[in-house]
Design goal:
Blueprint (H helix, E strand, L loop, with lengths): L6 E9 L1 E5 L4 E3 L4 E2 L3 E5 L6 E9 L6 E4 L2 E2 L7 H11 L5 E2 L5 E3 L1 H6 L1 E8 L9 H17 L8 H9 L11 E4 L13 E5 L5 E7 L9 H11 L1 H23 L3 H21 L9 H17 L4 E5 L5 E6 H14 L4 E2 L12 H8 L12 E5 L6 E2 L22
Parallel strand pairs: 7-11, 17-18
Antiparallel strand pairs: 1-6, 1-19, 2-5, 3-4, 5-12, 6-11, 7-8, 9-10, 12-13, 14-16, 14-18, 15-16
The chain binds ligand DP6.
Ligand DP6 binds next to helix 5.
């Protein structure tokens, strides 16, 4: 095969992450940097991940992109995509083959057009951090393809950040902070950093209330909040810095009660900020609020904080808890929000629930109703982007998309 024909390709998968200290509001739209630092848990990729194949070849005549099997022609003008592509190209290294012949020089990489095909194993843009996983997978795959090397730790995350802010946190596993950075450093310090590699006992239940695309995108919503919400400004300046510190300490001590309390207060304040936005933004719905009431009743019944809810830019809930209580909680949610599909843990119908607990939860007014929650995922913290060797979304001979949603792996 000549260099003319050869298609070089790489496939990587990347995780979602769910913030416990929320990013909402940009300090710089141009650099996509946040008003405040944030902290999240990177989730295991066995259920929820983005899988992205990137390829370059002299055969390709333009950049092309497929998302979930459908080509997106707007990609060539998409600033976020181009920022990621050009950001990684700038860090590309010369590439030699096994016989030590130069295959592509740093400069040559940039001349080649790229084909990208990506899919998510979960609903796109429904407030389940699909853009975080998607941009992290794109950046991770481009890094591999171009043999890119960071000039300072966290630099790849600064590039993922320009795709989608929360994507920078998906570049690492475990518990991850996104430091807000500063204009004095040209925002090069607005980057992600792993604060804890793992918290082995931590678990997350994801309750998918709706897999519809959200009405107000995070980008648009936070822009309106920055323009109109005084609460957002106060929160970013006066509340988040202390909460970040308290949260990092709680994580390092595996202090779940503190972690849980701050997680819920953060979720509440983020949604209060949305309500304080003019005109207001509503991401939670009646089912989300029922979930909050059940968690509150459960913690009161237990006499301690055993479960913590958090909601992002959509009605879906993530409930953090410890492994000792995950089965009990899954059974509780299975009772009040019966779902047809529970992944990872098939317990909901097996475990008996205490009469006193049912009384406490019934008092919230919630009546069990099937269909309010579509799917329940039971998951835990996991690692950052991973190489994928058994799946490829682009045909190795033509470089064209070969992923079709029905062939989901
Ligand atoms: C509510 O990262 O999607 O999930 O930077 O504009 O792409 P852009 O926004 P995005 O916002 C995520 C907001 C959030 C909170 C969080 O993940 O911290």
């Amino acid at each position: 095969m000549t260099k003319q024909d050869t298609i070089y390709m790489v496939t990587m998968s990347a995780p979602t992450n769910i913030a416990v200290i929320k990013y909402w509001g940009k300090a710089s739209v141009e650099y996509n940097t946040p008003l405040n630092s944030s902290l999240s848990v990177t989730l295991d990729q066995s259920e929820l991940r983005a899988v992205t194949t990137v390829a370059v070849s002299k055969q390709f005549t333009k950049n092309r992109f497929w998302l979930n099997g459908i080509e997106d022609d707007n990609i060539r003008q998409n600033k976020r995509f181009l920022a990621c592509l050009e950001g990684i190209q700038a860090l590309a290294q010369d590439h030699y083959d096994e016989e030590n012949n130069l295959v592509y020089s740093k400069e040559e990489w940039k001349q080649l057009h790229v084909h990208v095909s990506s899919y998510n194993t979960f609903p796109t843009a429904a407030g389940l951090a699909s853009s975080a996983a998607g941009y992290a997978a794109l950046v991770a795959a481009l890094c591999e393809l171009y043999h890119a090397v960071e000039t300072f730790p966290g630099q790849f995350s600064t590039i993922a950040r320009q795709g989608s802010g929360s994507a920078c946190r998906s570049m690492y596993g475990g518990i991850v902070a996104w430091r807000k950075g500063s204009p004095e450093q040209h925002w090069q310090d607005s980057k992600a950093e792993q604060v804890l590699e793992d918290w082995p006992q931590l678990r997350a239940l994801l309750l998918v209330v709706s897999d519809r695309k959200k009405d107000t995108s995070s980008t648009t919503g936070m822009q309106t909040s920055v323009e109109t919400s005084l609460l957002l400004k106060h929160r970013a300046e006066c509340i988040v810095p202390e909460r970040m510190q308290a949260m990092e300490e709680a994580c390092s001590k595996h202090d779940f009660a503190t972690f849980a309390q701050i997680t819920m207060q953060e979720s509440n304040q983020f949604h209060a900020t949305c309500l304080d936005t003019y005109p207001p933004i509503f991401y939670m719905n009646d089912i989300s609020r029922d979930i909050i009431r059940i968690v509150t009743a459960y913690n009161a019944w237990a006499g301690e904080c055993r479960a913590a809810y958090t909601f992002d830019a959509g009605p879906n809930a993530v409930i953090y808890c410890l492994d000792t209580h995950v089965t009990h909680l899954a059974a509780l949610f299975g009772h009040y929000f019966p779902v047809s599909s529970t992944t990872s843990l098939d317990i909901a119908s097996v475990l008996p629930l205490e009469e006193t607990l049912l009384q406490a939860c019934n008092a919230t007014g919630r009546i069990p109703r099937e269909g309010d929650v579509q799917t329940m995922y039971v998951t835990k913290p996991g690692p950052g982007p991973q190489p994928v060797t058994d799946v490829c979304n682009l045909d190795p001979h033509t470089g064209l998309n070969c992923y079709h949603p029905m062939s989901k792996k």
